[in-house]
Amino acid sequence: MRDAVIAAAGMATALGDGVRENVAALLAGKRAFSEPRHFDGKGVKLGLCHELDGGDGSRAGKLLDLLAASFPEAAKLPQEAPLYLATTVGAIDLLERQDSEAEPADGSDALLKLALDRFGRRRGMLVAAACASGQQAIVLAAGAVRRGELDCALAAGCDIASEFVTSGFASLGALSASAARPYDAERDGLTLGEAAAAVILMSPEAAERHGFTPLGRIIGWGESCDAAHITAPDLSGRHLAGAIRRALEAAGNPAVAGVIGHGTGTRYNDEAEINALHTVFGGNVPPLFSLKGNLGHTLGATGVIQSVVAAELLKLHRMPPQAGLRTPAPGAEKMVSGAARPLGAGAILSLNVGFGGLNSALIVEELQ
Amino acid sequence: MSIVAGGAWIAPGVAETLRSARRLEGFATLAELKTLVAGADWVPAGDLEDFRRGCEAVRLAQLAALLAAADAGEAWRPERAAVLGWNGSGCAAENRRYWQDYLANGRDLGRGGLFVATLASTPVCEAAITLGAHGSGCYVKGAASTRELAKLCGETLTMAIEIGKERAAALVFAPGAGPEYPDCASLEQLFEEMRYRKWK
């Protein structure tokens, strides 16, 4: 089976637009939380791109515009390359504004149409696996490239901060009263964010042919479902551990230099992840970090962002500080740090966990 | 290479299986179909705890998946099986229901049960819980044919589910060589084609 490389990438988040800008902000431990201006957030803070405030049209369309502007390499993508788009509810603000008598707008369909248009794609697929959607889209696209069904594909993730989603997570009691503190002993919930990110996945030969200098390589993945509860994870983390083991096995059991965790900052998610990592790595768990302490939980976009950040960190040999960390959660003392750290040799394991018990583990390796 | 190891189809008042050609009929609601399914000794036990509070899409997914698993018999091994939602009617109606309820409650607090149903992957995950399927789970929209869907399944035993308004189809794709199945635009159509060919 041939390789799938990340030929190019782009992102727009509350930390800024562009991959380098975001990685620099992560390494500096910046946090980008503020109160929404486009709806009454009742005091809650979110990871927002305020340049999207105001004007007509869906916020999601404007977010895709920011992504496209930060991602000029997308113009080099061959026209036949399909789009794999990850989202949870898409351009949901279209439904928020609708008259109740109208046929309900399908936010995900609307977002797919916007993304096909922005990136000049002829065909695309919507990928929904709750908060694991981003990595799932990469897995489907990379799988098609590795099997030789495609030479190249665009995998993207996009979700906006909306009253719809904010009220929904509030109804589940999942939101932090202040700001997310992943893997902290006193963590009290997640902070939502909005972002769009995309990667061009190609065979190495196609990347060379189209003049790309790849950022990194997707070398394996594993997935599982707890099949236990529709919102809560299995706290033992055993099925997440299974997904991680499958990913490592598929990748040829590489040394793991670091882990970009899902790390939402909820008590249940972080505990399940910590337990899963102990199950797989024993007492020798690699450095762990979650970017949700910096830019919030960006839902369908987070897995795409994580894969790109993984590739960049491998080049820089640096692991960002855990933003929001004061006292590491029990079991995470040797994994997380409030200071940036050197990253040893090896690959990065990236984790996504979604409602319904969906688990995704993806392994990114530096290109030699 | 994959084969269709089993399947089921549900429409108003009737549910059928593919390989075993069993038929359940005369039900007016999905709750009544659930009673028929629970009483059928050829259907394996499944976790239907969330059935009562689930939306119609969840109920259809749970029941279609259970019937398809029964139809696949020993070929269905849930430990590593994936569940894949495909095309169908999506969840715009569930999104509308959550939002209107939130507005009706003065934009104060939404209802968690309605919010969870707004995710297109929720019926998939509820079906995975029902079956105890521990492989991957996701919903995709856009693959144009069952042949493309089979590519997504790859070498993994997969329960593919398609949910429409008041109807559902579930087919079990299993790795292996066998008679080629027709390429169709929907799982319901594939079910029909294979049933009329008296496929066994």
TrEMBL record, chain A:
InterPro entries in the cross-refs: Beta-ketoacyl_synthase, Ketoacyl_synth_C, Ketoacyl_synth_N, PKS_Beta-ketoAc_synthase_dom, Thiolase-like
GO molecular function: 3-oxoacyl-[acyl-carrier-protein] synthase activity
Alphabetical GO biological process terms: fatty acid biosynthetic process
SUPFAM superfamilies: Thiolase-like
Sequence ranges assigned to domain Ketosynthase family 3 (KS3) in this UniProt record: 1-366
UniProt keyword terms in alphabetical order: Transferase
Similarity comment: family membership: Belongs to the thiolase-like superfamily. Beta-ketoacyl-ACP synthases family.
Protein name (database record): 3-oxoacyl-[acyl-carrier-protein] synthase-1/3-oxoacyl-[acyl-carrier-protein] synthase II
Organism of provenance: Victivallis vadensis
Lineage: Bacteria, Pseudomonadati, Lentisphaerota, Lentisphaeria, Victivallales
TrEMBL record, chain B:
GO MF annotations, alphabetized: acyltransferase activity
Name assigned to this protein: Beta-ketoacyl synthase-like protein
Native organism taxonomy: Bacteria, Pseudomonadati, Lentisphaerota, Lentisphaeria, Victivallales
